[in-house]
Every structure is written in C-alpha cells, then in structure tokens.
Amino acid sequence: MTQTNSNQSGNQRRKMKSASRLYAVQALFQMEHSGQTFDGVAAEFLNYRFGETYDGVEMMDGDITHFKMLVEKAVSNQAKIDQMTDRALVARWPLGRIDPTLRALFRAAGVELIGRDTPPRVAISEYVDVAKAFFDDGDEPKFVNAVLDHMAREAKPEAF
Asked: Are 127 and 105 spatial neighbours (Cβ–Cβ below 8 Å)?
C-alpha cells in the first residue's frame, strides 16, 4: 500500500468514526423520544441509515463497531454520564431542562470522555462538530464546547 492510499484509508476511517458519532447522537435521541430499545434503534440505523440516500444526498457510512459501542455504553453508563453532565451545567440548567438532542450528545460524548481510547480534546472537537450539524446557526456549539471541556477536566484531569 502506498503512503497516499494509507492516508486515504486512515482519513476514510476517521470520517466513518465521525459519522458514527452523529448517528449515535441521533439514535440516543430517538431512544429517549420514542422509548425504543437499543436493539430496535440499532437495527434501524444499520439497515436504513448508514450509507443510504435521502433527498438525493448519500449518507456517510459509519463505523458500526464504534456506533454500537457508543450507544450501548451511553445507555449502560447513563447515570454516571448524566451526573457528570449535571455538574458541568449551571445550577439553574439541570440536564432535564436542556434540549433532548444536547442530552443525547452529552451522553455519547461522555462515553468517550470516560473511556480510554479517545483523547479528550479529540472528543470535544468531534462533538462540537456534531453540535454544529444539528445547530448550525445557534450558540449551542459554544455551549457544548464549554460543557464538554468541564466534563473532560473532571474525567481526565491529567490530560490538561
């Protein structure tokens, strides 16, 4: 494999991982909103969303393993992640009062912040980009950056 092909495949893997983060936020939102289980939502995303075309736009393929890990661990660690998020929010804005998309985003990001594989600064940057995809004209990406920075400093103070 040439260096160019290696860089292209590495870039493709990063894009797929980024797409899986976006899909995980959508899946977590859908699970909270509809009451669906992980298995049902995961099957829908894997069968009908990854790489599909909507309104003439082809959706990016996601990293299936990363997607499943994010959603499963967000559900199994939800209480811990929600408590960490609550501590990062201002007292008058408890987690239950914020936009459900942001709740889903903080839960997916929390998985990576408490895990060992993703450097905190990378996770923050990736999820700020996810926030921009959902809230392109608002202040939400700045809010997400501030909350995730606080969460990351709590979860991995040695990284700062």
From this structure: yes
Length of the chain: 160
| Distance separating the N- and C-terminal Cα atoms of the chain | 36
Query: For residue range 50-77, what is the model confidence (pLDDT) as tens digits?
Result: 877 666 666 778 899 999 999 999 999 9
Q: Which residues contact 70 (CB under 8 A, 6 or more apart)?
A: 20, 21, 24, 108, 111, 112
Question: Tokens standing for 109?
Answer: 């990001």
pTM: 0.85
Homologous superfamily in CATH for domain 3-159: NusB-like (1.10.940.10)
3-class DSSP state of 57: strand
- List Cβ<8 Å contacts ≥24 apart for 97-103: 99/140, 100/29, 100/32, 100/33, 101/25, 101/29, 101/134, 101/135, 102/131, 102/140, 102/143, 102/144, 103/28, 103/29, 103/32
Largest CA distance in the chain: 55
